[in-house]
Amino acid sequence: AAAASALVLAGCQTTPGAGAKADKPAQARRYAAYPDVTLEQWLAELRKEALGRGVRGEIFDQAFADLKLSERVGELDASQPEFTRQPWQYIDSAVSERRVAEGRKRLERHGALLRETSRQSGVPAEILVAFWGVETDFGASTGNFSVINAVATLAFQGRRTDYFRSELLAALEILNKGDIPLAGLRGSWAGAMGQTQFMPTIFIAHATDADGDGRRDIWNSLPDVFASTAKFVRANGWRPGESWGQEVRLPDGFPYQDAELTITKSVAEWRALGVTGMDGKPPAGDGNASILLLAGRQGPAFLARENFRAIMRYNPSTSYALAVALLSDRMAGRPGIVADWPRHEQPLSKDERFEVQQRLAGLGYDPGKPDGMIGPATRAAARKFQSAAGDIPDGFVTKDMLEKLRRAGG
């Protein structure tokens, strides 16, 4: 995306702040994260820390020679599609027929490399290609933000400054190591890099030089891309030989209060409750699993096993994880979703999600700290409200629920 109104806040040559260049409003600005620290002071402290980690001074100075902090980055941070669209809208886009067809072509084209990577890692080839497809459309859209500028913006003035400071220091270590030159260190607005979008700290921990050229190149080398992705997925708890889960049917009288990823039961327990596959057969296998409902009782239900959680450790959005899982299934010739989504339901705006949380709290149901994100605590509070109202407590927060909360005076 094009930068909306990037602010040139500082330039750094040999000493951070010595040659600072900025417009007057930016020069005097103080951000909520660091109200008593100028950008120049912040950079000076960052430089000390980076050099203490072994980053060479010339690498730091080159990286920040033309630092630009972007307001566009903050805007994008507040509107991630995994969290702001209805799940079916996200999945329709992420698992389109075009992407399924293209993914099958990539599986065939790179079959030998993928089979060998899968053999060594235990991660199926279709899962690796699904991450590749969902993250960057098979390398077509890796992001063109300067990783240094984007991550510095979020580290200095974002909502998670400590996290992004760590990512910024890791990005400097990558430059120091020589895996990629500064001009090539490009990625998403949040600093995710390469064809499967590693954050810098993930790169440090899991990037692999599979082609033996002395560099871990997740931007241009498919052997490095696939081996690095497989290493990360396996480290996240992927269990070789097991599936991520399956779409299921829930019986009449199902205890919807148990349909949450924070609640696990053995597959045998779900079978005993009457949960079946879409073919009517009880789910096979053992181990633990959760019931996932992204659209309440109106939408499809999924039995999410441990490998679904491994996918979520790549990205904590349930819509994202389901998209990766479904794309892998479709590419491998397995069926897609059978049940219908409630496509008539419109998404709530962020202000409306805040209002839902505030009204639930006002009625004595604890949704956690209002943040405009509908997570497990909000769904638990919504279930309690639904039960009190005589509705099926599936935790699906809708505009109709908001209207009921308004009438209840919460």
Task: Explain what you see.
- With 410 residues, the chain is an alpha+beta fold.
- Helices cover 47% and strands 7% of the residues.
- The protein is built from 19 helices and nine strands.
- The chain has helices spanning 24-27, 39-52, 57-63, 71-77, 81-84, 87-94, 97-109, 111-121, 125-136, 147-157, 161-177, 200-206, 222-235, 267-272, 306-312, 318-331, 350-362, 376-388, 399-408, and strands at residues 6-7, 69-70, 145-146, 186-187, 245-249, 265-266, 276-277, 288-293, 301-305.
- The chain has a five-stranded antiparallel sheet with strand order 6-8-9-5-7. A two-stranded antiparallel sheet has the order 1-2.
- Strand 8 and strand 9 (301-305) form a beta hairpin.
- Helix 6 (87-94) packs parallel to helix 16 (318-331), helix 8 runs parallel beside helix 13 (222-235) and helix 15 packs across helix 16 (318-331).
- The longest helix is centred in the middle third of the chain and has 17 residues, at 161-177.
- The two termini are 40 Å apart.
- The model is unreliable at 1-32 (pLDDT under 50).
SSE layout:
Blueprint: E1 6-7, H1 24-27, H2 39-52, H3 57-63, E2 69-70, H4 71-77, H5 81-84, H6 87-94, H7 97-109, H8 111-121, H9 125-136, E3 145-146, H10 147-157, H11 161-177, E4 186-187, H12 200-206, H13 222-235, E5 245-249, E6 265-266, H14 267-272, E7 276-277, E8 288-293, E9 301-305, H15 306-312, H16 318-331, H17 350-362, H18 376-388, H19 399-408
Antiparallel strand pairs: 1-2, 3-4, 5-7, 5-9, 6-8, 8-9
